[in-house]
Design a protein that fits this description.
Helix content is 49%, strand content 6%. The protein has four helices and two strands. It has a two-stranded antiparallel ribbon. The N and C termini lie far apart (32 Å). Mean pLDDT is 82; it is low at 1-8.
Amino acid sequence: MAELKSSSKDFSDATYPGVYKFDELDRMEKLVGNDWEKVRSLLGGKGAGLARMTALQFPVPFGFTITTEACTYNMKHGKRPESLWNQVLDALKEVEKANSTCLIYSLP
């Protein structure tokens, strides 16, 4: 499993996970050594809470969270990480499929 990278790392790797779906809590916990505080640090409090509620089978709409690391990178460099946009588009397509709706009409 990949090691958790800090926000100072290079995000040019297209496989770097900057987006996690709410139903991927197990994957996130394994990534950070089953440490809930590290999950909260990675996803932020709201994102971690939504992932936890999804895992507990509360009625949470399908969704995703952009990591705090990706947000920190954006603030530090004034641009989003290279691989993030495609990850967001893929996640939005999954949200559309899960909700039988169309959110993306004409994006580049």
